[in-house]
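Lecture 7, part B: from sequences to assemblies.

Below are the input chains for today's worked example.
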Amino acid sequence: MGDEGESSPWKSTTGKASQKKTYQPAGFEPRRKTGLEEVNPRVREIQPPKGDMLLRRAEEIRAELQQGVKKPYKEVIDISQDDFHSAGMKPFSFVRQVIAACLHPELLHSGKLPADVCQRAQRLLKECDGDSVGSYSDSCGIPHVQRTVAEFITRRDGGLPSFPKDIFISSGSQRALMVVLRLLAQGEGMSQTGVLTPVPTCYTFPMVLTEVGAVMVPYQLCEEQGWALQVDELRRVLQASRGHCDPRVLYVINPGNPTGHVQSRKSIEDVIRLAAEERLFLLANEVYQDTVHGEGVEFVSYKRVLFEMGPQYSDTVQLASFNSISNGIGEGGLRAGYVELLNIDPAVALFAEMLLCTDICAPVTGQIALAIMADPPWPGDPSYGQYAEEVQASQETLIRNVRRVEEVLSALPGVSCQPAMGGVNVFPRLYLPAGAVEQAKEAGVEADQLYCKRLLEEVGLCVGPGCESGQREGIHHMRLHVKVPAEVMEEALGRLRTFHLRFMSEFS
Amino acid sequence: MGDEGESSPWKSTTGKASQKKTYQPAGFEPRRKTGLEEVNPRVREIQPPKGDMLLRRAEEIRAELQQGVKKPYKEVIDISQDDFHSAGMKPFSFVRQVIAACLHPELLHSGKLPADVCQRAQRLLKECDGDSVGSYSDSCGIPHVQRTVAEFITRRDGGLPSFPKDIFISSGSQRALMVVLRLLAQGEGMSQTGVLTPVPTCYTFPMVLTEVGAVMVPYQLCEEQGWALQVDELRRVLQASRGHCDPRVLYVINPGNPTGHVQSRKSIEDVIRLAAEERLFLLANEVYQDTVHGEGVEFVSYKRVLFEMGPQYSDTVQLASFNSISNGIGEGGLRAGYVELLNIDPAVALFAEMLLCTDICAPVTGQIALAIMADPPWPGDPSYGQYAEEVQASQETLIRNVRRVEEVLSALPGVSCQPAMGGVNVFPRLYLPAGAVEQAKEAGVEADQLYCKRLLEEVGLCVGPGCESGQREGIHHMRLHVKVPAEVMEEALGRLRTFHLRFMSEFS
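Predicted structure of the full complex, as structure tokens:
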């Protein structure tokens, strides 16, 4: 490759569009079709994430390697996305055994599955219409799964009750996020719903905002303080955005994505106080609640803090808290998540239900995985030993990788990295040489895109460019997903080190 | 029950909203929350299907029966929805075995599964990132599944090629429909996108239209001619709607839902000619393509007819054709479907991809089911015999039920039924007595709602009221789902007969 001409991934953002043409008998001039100008203008504004071109290029490189093209590496390593299994992490056996038995109940009598797997599968099948995972469920989910999730939340929050009616099950947390945002988004111009959004943020969030027709009101997280959320910054952007839009929604991600920051109880209290004062609807993305790994650091839910602040807050602040199986048990491909809606007018909640209804329902296999995540094997159960071991091994790998990434990066010139306390990413800063920044400018891309592109081409490592997650102008980062097998992490770090030293010296 | 007061299902449309209240310490007055007036006005317009109250009441009755309340029946039979497994139909073993093996690959070595199941599972796992169904797939689906679907379509259409790039896999055909409609919907007032929609129609379609912000332009199917689509009626409503909206999209359902009509090649040609003349974007809901059961009647796809009409049409008419596993193999709970987009500008198709991307991807277990539907066991494969038997048994049940329904209904006074040729529903007409119509009017409901409500209360049979699917004013129908086990159908017909005779004599 190396050709930066017409086929350059900088220029091609299309993907499918660039593939083989539709069947057309020769000799006929196609007439005008629905052009872009006839596409919903809101849809037309959706921008693909900035890392897409890297992913497409990674696919091309994989194809080239398969075709025998010589490269200095045998395979591409992709640590740009939160996809545990894709990177080689193993599923939890209990989850898979139960779903397999639900799908093919003959297995229940095969003698091949532990007793608690069979009991659980039978229990869950009874909760499916017609005892089959092939039936539709209620739009908001199987009532038993809603109850199981509510019990999970109640345990998590030290007994503070959660009610099944507040649990809306969807095909993933992002889908739930979109449902709530679609509910709230309205207006145009000055009256258009504004959503205060952390920067850096989960890189698919801007697409979601554009699709629902809300305005992003970015607030900067403080890198120097380990990517802490600062309420003063929230106040500042809130003030500044009024007159441009109607900032009614505050989006927080805790533990942070991609920052790895974990909010303290005090910080959450401050946010809730602001939300109460300013009547902001709080969206708390808490999908990493089970992956806190900083020493002495603990996850506290927004809901718990809200209710412990007393009725002045717990009766008034509207909160939507999101969680999913993608991160909880690493089963993103099964697609299930939920949102707990608190302090929502029942008439409003009804519309959330109707929006979910247009999806029919979340996949039942995903809902079963969610039920297991919320109610895993307990001590004394036949499967408990193996389940606990698998969870611990997965957590140990994560902790080990985070430490190793920090060790390796801290020894590199031109890199600094805030310690990550939770989540599955790190987001180190890159101090790129002026020459590289200049070159990127000429190519019309961000300097971290240039860096990541060359990292991919030269050593076959795919990481997320900082600009995709968002960052202050002129500052650069990269995003590394770290919940991968230890040997993959080592190989990735080795390649990163080799490339980085070469890149820095090239421009020195 | 019998109380038609405050708790009457006529008045309560809420569902969840009517459940237990959120946790609130006593003694505090809740302050104002986001009220309905702050909800996205487009969302606020969404109306739940008219049969929802019946479904909720059916659930209540089930609960009452469990609590020991005496009724003239032991259980509720629900034949109001297209949910095969919920009604007791069995899944196809090969589908379930393969997905179970993909989920829990240890089964591959258990000696419990046929060789072709193991081979298929291994093949499909290789196509999943990290060899796991827990990984995300591309937004448009696993490329191998796109290819398999394209090959299926090519075979179906006598060799007319289908290309993987045109196949967009989603979590169900309704989701795909919504993506295409969201792409096309725009404007307000006279410029708002109008969608020509058959009446009667699939009862969730109006919700979808409202959510995407398009206007429904209803066209009547001709009951007297077996619910045929008439191009003159299309022309009439097209004309009449101009000036009120911008009718750019024509939605057809073939085989018909809930009518059971199957379009002839000639009828499809007429529709395509109109679409070409009037530059209409064609949406063809073809989810019942595998359930044609009328003697001598055959399914022909819109795509095939379009391409056989020559380049004047095949190069110009924009067509989206939908299909799904929900009807194809009765696995609605697994959630997967696809749309094939033809004659779409690549730049426009790219936005379809981005809309799917905001969902992340369709559930991988569903995608695997779709791959199997598109490429079932073939003669000579170890599983072929069983698969063919199961498919045949399922088809025979359907044909038998359709015949039995027609027999029973034709012997009842005040009922007429057009013979169904395809699909899984029948939509008989009810000639209800003036007294019943009057009573319904007083209760503020349609007469077929009253009929269905009493049918449910008195004999425990839940069917869809005609007004939910749409019908001419003053005319009444009911919708019966007929892909259920033969014994369920017999029991349902017995109950229907008993009730109907009583109801008619009550008002005579």
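Note for the exam: The longest helix of chain A spans residues 384-410. Keep this in mind when comparing with the next example.
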